[in-house]
Structure formats: C-alpha cells, structure tokens
Amino acid sequence: MNKTQCFKAAGAVAIVAMLTAAGPALGAGQSPMLDALVQSGEIPPLEERLPANPLVLDAESIGQYGGTWRMGMNGGGDNGLIAKTVAYEGLVRFDREWQTVIPNLAESWEANAEATEYTFKLREGVKWSDGAPFTSADIAFTVEMYQDPEYAASSWIDNINNPATVEVIDDLTFKFKFNRPNGMLMDEMASVNGIHITSLQKAYCSQFHPSYNENAAADAEAAGFSSWALHLQDRCAWGWETIRFANPDLPTLYAWVLDQPLTANASRVTWKRNPYYWKVDSEGNQLPYIDRLDMRVSQGGVEELTLAALNGEIDFQERHIATNVNKPLFFDGQEQGGYHLGAVIPSASNTLVFQLNFSHDDPVKRELFQNRDFRIGISHAIDREEIVDLVFTGQGEPYQVAPRPQSPFYDEELAKQYTEFNPELAIEHLEAAGLTEMNGDGVRLMSDGQPVRITVDVISALRPEWIDILEIMQLQLAAVGVEIELNNIDRTLFYEKRPSNDYDAQVWAGDGGLEVVQEPRYYFPFSDESVWAYRWAQWFNGTRPEIAEEPADWAQEQMELYRQIRSSSDPDERADLMRQILAITKEQFPVIGVSLMPDSYSIIRNNLRNAPETMFNAWLFPTPAPMDPVTWYFE
Amino acid sequence: MAVLLMETPVSEIAPRRIARESQLGLMWRRFRQHRLALISLWVVVFFYAVAILAEFLSPTDPSAYNARYTYAPPQGIHFFDRNEDGSWYFGPFVYGYKTEIDPVALRRTFVIDEEVRLPVRFFAESAPYRLAGLIPMSTRFIGLENPRDPFYILGADRLGRDLLSRLIHGTRISLSIGLAGVTLSLFFGIVIGGFAGFYGGRFDGVVMRVVEFIRSMPTIPLWLGLAAALPRDWSALQTYFAITIILSLIGWTELARVVRGRFLSLRTEDFVTAAQLDGASDWRIVTRHMVPSFTSHIIAAATLAIPGMILAETALSFLGLGLQAPIVSWGTLLQDAQNIRTLATAPWLLMPGLCVIVVILALNFLGDGLRDAADPHGR
Amino acid sequence: MVGFIVRRFIAMLLTLLAVSIVAFAIIQLPPGDFLTSYIAQLASTGDQVDPRVIENLRAQYGLGEPFYVQYWKWITGVVQGNFGHSFEWKRPVWELIWGRIGNSILLEGLAVIVMWFVALPIGIYAAVRKYSLGDYLSTILGFIGLAVPNFLFALILMYLAYTWFGTTLGGLFSPEFEMARWSLPRVWDFLSHAWAPVLVLATAGTAELIRILRANLLDEMKKPYVVTARAKGLPEWKVILKYPVRLALNPLISTIGWLLPALVSGSVIVSVVMNLPTAGPMLLRSLTTQDMYLAGAIILLLSVLTVIGTLISDILLALIDPRIRYGAR
Fold this sequence. Notes:
The complex is a heterotrimer of chains A (635), B (379) and C (329). Chain A is built from 21 helices and 23 strands. With 635 residues, chain A is of the alpha+beta class. In chain A, α13 packs antiparallel against α16 (423-432). Chain A is globular and about 85 Å long. The model of chain A is unreliable at 1-27 (pLDDT under 50). In chain B, strands 1-2-3-4 form a 4-stranded antiparallel β-sheet. Chains in contact: A-B, A-C, B-C.
C-alpha cells in the first residue's frame, strides 16, 4: 500500500468468485493448545471443526502458534479497541487496501440491477464458538431483533428510511430486500457496520425474548432485571456494544473468545483462541496463530499505558498512545523497548474543521455565516503554515476539508482553495461580506451594529491540539477584526447544543478524507455530524422533522445527487455523482479547514511477524482488524 | 529598714518601662522569633506581589507563541562572561539557541549557543498594556533589546510560549482563587460559626450537624457534581468565580468549627462575664472583647486553609473539571505538563509544581507561626 | 454510655438520610442524563441512534420521571439492599462496587497505618525537641509531602521506576495473580504493587498528623503532672511515653473521621494516574457518563464509611475519656 495508490470506492455488485482456487490440504495443523482438548474429547478434531471451504488467508510468511498479543484499553468503555481487533467478522470485508469488498462469512453474493435485492450464500460448516452451525436462521433472527423497538440497537438493518427485510432461502442462502434502492449496501456491510448482522446467535439469544421463550420475563426477573428487554440487552448486546464483551457465554464467530470478560471491574480483558475459527493459512493450518490476547484496562489515564509501551509491554498498538506529542518519546525508546514504529495513514482529511452554524437563531449571524465571502475572508486570515509548524512540528500542509491525496476523489483545487495566508485579501472578502465598520477595539461590526464575536465550542479532552490551533487562530483572526471566543466544554453538552441550536460554531476533525462517499458530512448536509447545517441535515434525513429547515438550493441539489448515489448499483456512476457533489462543495465552500491530518504511527514489537508496517487508520475500516491479525505471530 | 533602703544605689533600680503592646503587637513579637515563619511570610508576600504585578514582571505576553522555539529548554540568566579578547563582560544576559528540526522523531533540538549573547534590559519597552487591567503602561521589568530574540529564562512550552510569563500570570489566578476562596469561607465560617458559638444551644447543634454532614461527604464527588453542573457556556471569568465558590462552600466548615470553638471557650471567660455584668450589648461584647482576642487564630486558620484551595484547584484541573485552557493557572499549566513526554523531554514544564510546593510550604509555616504566636499560653 | 451511643446513632441515621438526598441531587445536577451522554459517545464514532430506540431505553431505565419519584424508588431499594442497576454495565450496582470499595478500603487503610507509623515518632520528636534542627527538618519534609500534588508525585514515581528499574508501576496485581485466591505469594505480589500508591497517599496526610500530634503533645507536656513526674526523677523517655503521648493520641483517634473522606478524594487522582481498580475511577467515570445509580451508590457508601468512622471514633473517645461522654450532649 503506497500513498499514490488510489483508494477506490469499493462496491462490487457482481458475483465474486471464491478466493480459493485450489483448496489446500485441510486440517493440516492446529495450535498445540487445542491438542489436549481434542484428545480429551472436549472438542472434535480439526477437520470436523473447520468449514468445508474455510477462508484462506495469504500472509507474508507461515507462522508458528502461541504467544499473547498485549495491548491496552483506555477506561472500561473502550469497546472500540475490541471492534478494531477481534470483532470485525461480518459477512463480507474490505481488502487490505480498503478498495474492494471480498468474501468473509459469506462466500458469494449477488444483487439485482435496481440494488433492492441482495442474495448471500454462507460458507458451509462455519461454526459458532460453541460448536453450533452458523446458518441463515441466525441472520433472520438478528434482523428481527434489530427491528424490535425493545432491543436497543440501530444500524442499517433498521434504518427508518430504508429498513432491510430478510428472506431465508435455505440454511445457507438468504436475501436482503429493500423498498428503495440501496446501492451502497456492500460498502456498508464491509465496513465496521457489517459486524451487526453476524452478532447474534439465534439458539442462545432467543431464550431471552418472549416470542421464543414464554418464561423470558420471569427469567429476567429471576436474574435481577426489571424487564426481559434489559435482560436480553445484557446477555446479547448488539454489534460491538461494551457489555457484549461482558458475557463470556455469548457465542461468537471471532478468532478469539473471551476468557476474562470486560466487566466494570476488569483490570484486564483476556481472550483465548476459538477452536472453531473458520480461517486457515495457505498451508491449511487453522488460524489464528496467536493463542491469546491480553488487553490491560487503564482506569482513565493513558500515562501508564504509554510507559508500558515504552517498556516493551505492548505488542502492537496505535490507539490512545500514538499521539503527536508522544512521538519523540517512542522514537527514542525503540531500542530499550524492543519495538519499532510503523506508519499509519489517517482517514481524516483535516486537523480541524471550523463549522459556522448556517441556521443560527440570530438572523444577522445566520446571514453572515451563510455568506461565502465571510468564510473565504476567515480562511485567508489563517496562517496555516504557522499552525502546522507550531502544533504539528511541520507535519502536514495547509489544507481545506477535502478528500486526501490518496483518494480517487482528490481535487487539488478543492483541497487548496483559499488556504493562502493573505490578510489583505481576507479583509477584502470580509468587507465584501458587509463587514466594513469597526468598533474602537478593532472588531468589525455586523449589520445590526454588534461586533463579530463567534463563540467556538471545542472539546479539548478529545484532541488537546484543538485548543492550541484555536488559540493561534484567535490571534490571527483578531488581526483582521474577527473575534472568536473559545468555549471548552464536555462532550455531552457539545452534542446537546446541536438540536437546541445553541451554538455559533463548533470544531471537529475532518472525517471523510478517504471514505468520501460513505462519510460526506462536510461536503453536504448529510448527517447529525454536519454541524454547520444541522437543521438542513434533519430535512435530508427526516429524523427530527420538528426542527428541520429547508436547505439552500445548492444543498438540495447535492442531496438529490446523493439520493441517486444510494440508488445506483454502478460504482463508476456513483463516483461520478460524488464528483458532482464535490464540485458544488468547492463552489460553496461551506466549512473551513486548517491542515492535512499528518500521518500517525503504530508501535510494533520487533518479534511480531506479518504485522503491517503501513496501514490506514479509520473507523469504518476498523484497523488493524482488516490487516488480518489472525495471521500475525511471534518469533 | 529605711537605712537599708537608702543604701541601695539609685542606679540599680531599673527604670520600670511601662510598655503597652496591642494584641497584634504582642503577636508580632512572638511571631518574629519563629524564623521559618518569618521567611515564609516574605515568600508569600513575594508571590502575591508577583500576582499583582503580573503584566509588568512577565517578560512577554503569556499567549505569545513562537513556532521556532517549541519546547525550547531554559536559557537561565547569566551575569558574567569572558569576551573574545579575554576581558570580562558584566551584566545580565542570556545565550541564544541553535536549532535543528528532526522530522522523523517530530521534534526540535536546541543547543544553547554561547556565541550569541543577548543582553537583558531592565524596564524594557514593550507593547502597551494595562497593569492589572487598570494602569496603562508600556515598559516591562525585564526584556531583550530586540523583542524578536528568544527570551526563555525558564524554557518554552509546546507552542513556544514563555514558561516564566505563563507562570507569573498563573500565579495571579491560582493565588487569587486561594485568597478569594478563603475570604468567602472566612465570611461564612465567621458568621455561621460565630452565631453558633455565641448563642449555642439548638442553633449550635443544627450548625454542627450541618458541618459534620458536609465534612462526611467525600469532596471529589462534591466538586465533580458541582463543577459538572456549572452552565458550560459560562465565560472563563464566570467559571473562575464559580470554582472559587465551590471550593469555599466546602472550605467554610473548618473555619466555622474554629470560630465556634473559640466563641464557646471565650463565652465563659471572666472578662466576657464582666462585660456582660457591665451591661454591654451583645454586639459590643462580640466586636470589642471577643473578636480581638481570637483574630490571630482566625488569621492562622485562614492561612492554613489557602493551601488546600490551591491544591484543590490543581486537582480539579487535573480531572479536567476546573479551570480549562486558555485560562492560565498553575492547575492548567500542570495539566499540560502531566504526561510522560514532559517528564522525559521537557522537565522544566514541571516548574509550576515547584511553585505550588514552595507556596504551600510557605503558607503552612506562616500559618503555624501565626498560630504559635497567637497562642497566649505559648512559651 | 448506652444513651450516648443511641443518640449518636440516631444522629448518624439522620446524617445518612441527608447524605443520600444530596448524593442523588448531585448526580442529577449536570444537564442531560445517561442516554444523552451515551448518544454523544456513539455519535462520535459515527453511529446514529434511532430516536425511537432512545425513547424506549428512557422508559426502560425509568429516566425522565420527576426527581422525587426517582429518589423514592432508589432509596426504598437501597434500604432493602438493592442499589439499582448500572446503566452502562447493565449489572446490579452492588455486584460492581463491592470489589472496588474493598480495594479502596484496603489501600486507604494501609495508607493510614503508614501515616501513623511515620507520624508518631516524628511528631513526638518534633514536640520534645521543639524548634530544633530535627523539628524543622521533619516538619519541612512532612509539609513537602503535603504540598506535592498527588498526581505529580505519582507520575514522577512511575517515570522514575521506568527509567531506573525498567518496571511499570501500576495496577494492584501482576496478571498471574489477578484472579487468584489470596495466598502468601499473592499478598507479596499485592504489596510489591501497592507500596507506590500507599506511599503517595500517605505522604499527603502525614504532615497533618505530625502537626496535630506535636501540638497536642506540647499542650500535655506543660501540664503539672508531667512536671511532677520529671521532678520525681523519672527518665525522660518514660515521662513522655507514659502519659502525655497516650493522651495526645486521643485526638488522633478522632482523625479517623476526616481522614477517610480526604483519602478517598486523594485516591481518586492517584488511582487514575497509577491505574488502580479502586472506587475512585469508577466514581469518576460514572459521574461523567451520568450512570446515576452507580455514582449514587458509591457516594453513599463512601459517606457511610466516613460517618461510621466518625461514630466509631466518637465512641472510642467516649470510652477512653469520660469528659467527652458527659460533656457532649
């Protein structure tokens, strides 16, 4: 994977041939850890545990069994780490380059031309971690649960605009049907959101639901729950919900099964290999190579984790500790800690996205914030080189909120427009926006005679560099007569201010630098995260009609284009439509970016083999899981 | 007998000095003997002076950043140097830096460049500012001839801001929070504790139960709950005052106990009874007779309460609940410094910790000294 | 005596009732509830929760009811030993916290013992050799312990352990002893982990103890009986240890009451930095996620411990010193 290599919107809606051309000799090898279990008859021999057609993973080298992969969680609620290492086992998956959708639990699929019906065929003989076969019935059950309003989960399965219905054809074949075209389903299912559909085993989870067990309510009460729904959610939580990993009895399809679960009191979460795992290496040895996982749970501070990594007590990790600030520390500690640093390319485009509230309650501010000249003026007033130099030690470059250079949607003009630091030009644009008068303190006056004072909400706890960037921007903008005030708040409030429309501006990182089609929140009013046009996004999604507001014409045009993307089954057509959306984005310049998110790094122990020296970092592409940790091994 | 008396030389009769000392004067005399306390007093005075004169004393603006000097180590300040021709150079100066960027490890490396000597000027010209927000001024205590030269006596932080300037401005916030918090606590403490002690009985019982109750609540959840409940869109200044009030809401109980205790014990003293028999009003008894006799105790107790406030401020900032950047206080400065990177590569950023330690030590010794001095039975 | 204990006991129950109301009010203070923070957390990973699901959850959790209804439900449950369910972990609160509270008591208990062991000799020395070099040095050392912010001390300790000995201090047990039963090796393993946090906690409080002990002792030593004892030619160590020290210890007993809440607060910070599974970090997290029954239960239990601590110290004092028994109404 090199930087120039194009990321391509994956979306094969063709029949994908089975990846394995010549089946290797099955049942060639298993971990010595399992030999005794087989001999004692606790588990059947390997050939009975593996599917007829196991998924074969090619890795750089054939590994050896054993060892423990040590990593660290930040706080008890860090389920993200598990989603990104263990739980990424959907029907399909992305390849390592995040380009095409490839088979996983499903060995093949096809879609109709309208993208309303998808037929999947499961791998035969795949077993849950308790040895029971994985079939279409489990899929149908999962869909049923997700659509039950009492079960607290939501995903593409129960999307209110276009929910999935399932039709079981036989034990291994089923169909998803949609009322409206769903051209992006395969991308969705290959992303982290694909975890949802394979997360519940019918045999185990149905015992908690009254439709399957008339005593469910009584059982729940006996177990100390006030309703069967709470009991069900406790035992069979959705996808990657934290408490899902608190139940070691829950059957899964993961490479490792829980040993010490993630409870509120766990100081570590440990996993041991799943004897029924359904992937093998090219010689037919059952994966994973690594026998155990050990996730130490920090109590809310990452300093101990940093020290542990420095001390060689972490085998592979990027999450939490690989910060900009820590880099010199980890760089110097390589020899003592017996690790080296790998490259990590973030999926985010921008270090900070400055989003002005287009639907501000104050009509004067609303008009000003919607004024393109005003935003261009602000953009020219930011000395991005200085910020890059100061905050990121020269890493990155001035950049707008635009697809990253690695993306096929990369457009230099979109990425670079208005990034030049030019106070005169800035003043020219601000004056064009009607800000010609100034008060005694040198702050420009709006049309109602009030000074331009923008309160910017920021969560410094999430990314400490945001405060640094904003403090510098504050001085730079003051020089052209725009006053910004920093409002450092906590996350809950940050989100609460959106529906109540109680904000001038908020900042966040630039998601959607690589996953352009799937996460276009800054390119048009796409979701609740499009904070700059929160109320327009409500209009688009129909989620909160009471506060929805009709968007400007150009935004409506973008929304229409995106609807076409959703209904298209042709990847090239979708890419073309997305480019049209981006062209409007370029013209309208809705949000202001600062700099390209610099590359990060991962910490890799020197004796760990097959681990990626370079990888993307994203949530939808939940690295490192797509880099096949099951093929990693210790030398 | 008379003869005997006469025989005593006049010179040997010591002239009886009729010395009159006020309560505070007596206290001061005793206090001066406590050397550690005396030193501490000057330390405390020094820090509060720094807090008042923050703008004047800080070499630069605390928020002025400089990309070329991120994590620049302390320059220190030098007074003597040998010129190239072998003669001596006198006068305060700092050395310049030699800088290199290491793009792989993501850092700048600095070497003190002894070739470059940057003389320090007193009462240097600077951009105009207002001292304590009131007095317009345009000189600072120290500065470099060329304001563009690096001037980092105590080093720079991650944005190349001058630590000394930030420390000085942080002193103002942290010390005033301590003082304001204690003043508030003192007010509540004296009023509530005073009433309880003077009138006793049922009111006293109720107050003491309340005090006991507040003290039985672990402070952290109280802070957390109250700090989390502050309207988050308050400005920095409002938050600052709110934090002060929160700290003093918990702090007043200790003072109330002290005050009440003194009142209770004084109430039965003979001189109070005498005053009552004289027909003095309650007000007069309290203000004229009782309060002067324990002012010193109150001062001591209040002094001892300030360190708790300062430590609480840093602890709250550590938990991400108290003051937040961009406000500069010792707590927020320490919050920036509390990571392994700082310990490993920029230990000078722990300087605020040293200030906390010194001030708290000084306040404690001062408080101890005051208490010893105030104790009429002492020594 | 019985009357005294009964009176104190009733007062304690009233205090606890007040504590429970305040505890519940505090956790209700911040805007929003568990679900808003839950949605915020999901949203930051790009997930969007269907508003209908939230409505259902709100009903399932009984959120959105008036304060007094929620409080009444909670407190009646608490009285019956049911502390409610944690929203985040969907488990009974009691099951989650007993281990943590145990760890807290263990650590803080150790810290108290260490504090007394250090403070006793130093305090006596400082009083006997008042204003000597030793007095100054020990007081300065004690105050430095008090003055160093806990989190800074803990962090520096961890960093030094890493650079000097190549070990990471943190946690309470090595992995292999994590789940094991108590045994001699496990106790050893625990002590080899616990010394650092205990040290940090103890340094913060020792100075206060030294100060109290020294002051009390100085008071006692002025009393006539000490002079008499000296005059009778008793050796100096006996003069001091026989009575004044014993009497000076009385007020120390009463420190149990305030020591506990102070230690709990201190241990929150130490636990976060040193990664200790005590009640502190859980309380912190439950407060930020607004997991209110969990937070409420921890606050309540910690307060109960304190109040009981005060009660015990009161009773002890009353047993030792009859003046207190009759003096305090």
